[in-house]
Design a protein that fits this description.
Blueprint: H1 3-9, H2 24-35, E1 46-51, H3 54-61, H4 68-73, E2 76-83, H5 86-92, H6 99-109, H7 114-138, E3 142-146, H8 151-158, E4 163-172, H9 192-195
Antiparallel strand pairs: 1-2, 2-4, 3-4
Length: 199
Amino acid sequence: MNFLNIAQSRYATKKYDPGKKIDDETIEKLKEIIRLSPSSINSQPWKFTFVSDEKVKSELAEFSYNNKHKVLDASHVVVFSVIKDVEAFENNKLTLLPEGTRAYYNRVLKPRGVEQVMTWLTSQVYLSLGFFLSATASLGLDSTPMEGIQAEAYDQVLENDNYKTLFAVAIGYRDEEDKNQPTHTPKFRLEQDQIIRSI
């Protein structure tokens, strides 16, 4: 399947088949793919938690609002987290980067202040989300990005000490009756001339 076909066929799955699980080999591929996600200055301010344990999924489901059944029925839930504070990033991540990269950070990004640097770090995790959603579709999997969760409660369940949850992604296989799939409900996207400008 080429990338255009993937873009046309992938969608936010609303209903999963709880009887179908993703095999371990595919999960390992996904872990390696997400590890290779791009980020500005190779900052990698993230942690990705793959949850398949049914007990833990049940706990997370209670803090997932309208996403409860997706969390329960999907094969896995992947929780995307960002490093908790700027100082931790500078001490644990930035030190691993080349001198020129560190100099750029200290000269251009750090002077913007803690709040803006945290916003920038958070944006890097969102970059990995698009990468991950495309990867799941390329492997024949279905996925649902979920911001509708109680992030602090997720942190407590997962014992996230140095990172904070931003969002989660349910992954698995759609229920064939899911009415949100493009064969039942065609995708709505704005036309090219409304969103793309060529100069």
